[in-house]
Amino acid sequence: MHVRYDVSQQSGSTVFCVADNTYQISSHPGVTESMPLPPSPASSGRLKGVPPLNAHERVVDHLEHLVFGELAPGSPLPSESQLVEQLGVSRLTVREAVRSLQARGLIEVHRGRRPVVARLNTSAITDFFASSIRRDPRSVLDLLEVRRGLEVQTATLAAGRMNRTAATSMTESLDAMHASLDDPDAFDSADVRFHEALASASGNQVLTFLIEAMALPLRESRRQSRHGHLARGRPLVAIIEEHRRILECVLDGDAKGAAEAMQAHLRQTERSLHMTLDLPLAGNGSEPGPAATPRPSSAPADEQN
């Protein structure tokens, strides 16, 4: 599977290009749009008025088309001689283009062997979210907005695609949460596994990839929300019941109910995060709205235990 990741500065939407499809995760919860990926200029020609590519750009464009649209991870690229002959460029130009894609993590180069398409790696997304939370604990609220765009849709899809393996994994995760009420780390780990299994049940490889990529920062988010949950006077079993409701709807094939159950769970998570971070909620108090301008946290996240 080949994935490209981009964030639209105009709409706030997150766009993921996978093989020949583009998936747009809207800023509106539960909305995912799919549209054809425009043909690569390498195969369709340049648009009118667009300056022609130079030799280096033509080779990069051609290799990107192979990586994103034709070759599977681990597949070798054409040899240097083949690229020189096919594209009519020098060996030096091909080598520079290969180094460019290698620097971007799109291909792997080993001495004495042809470059191969790199396997999907979640580290860049994981590092981004994790470092954001380390710099500012309030970034968990940004992560929560991303979760809304992903997990409501995940629950919706899973309701129509649930399989026995995922159902078993989600049930076991709920049991593990219940058995770990006195072990916060184990409780949070089981919580993460539940959401990963739900993503797998959606049958959407992009959603599964993104949920797995967020596993590490989500642990910190869940730690903070758990503290806020207890500070609000709600027992941890209430979190388990929120998850159980999601699972029941998914197993019943109730897509609307699953989406509503996930939205309700994330609303509670938002309230708990605001409690931990000592940030006010806008709105009437019964439903969380957009946060007011955040105040600097009085203590690092690790001191809020």
UniProtKB/TrEMBL annotation:
Region of interest (Disordered), ranges: 279-305
InterPro entries for the chain: GntR_C, TF_FadR/GntR_C, Tscrpt_reg_HTH_GntR, WH-like_DNA-bd_sf, WH_DNA-bd_sf
Annotated ranges, domain HTH gntR-type: 53-120
GO MF term list: DNA binding; DNA-binding transcription factor activity
CDD domains the record matches: WHTH_GntR
Biased composition (Low complexity): 288-305
One Pfam short name: GntR
Keywords from the UniProt entry: DNA-binding, Transcription, Transcription regulation
Name of the protein in its database record: FadR family transcriptional regulator
Source organism per UniProt: Phytoactinopolyspora halophila
Upper lineage: Bacteria, Bacillati, Actinomycetota, Actinomycetes, Jiangellales
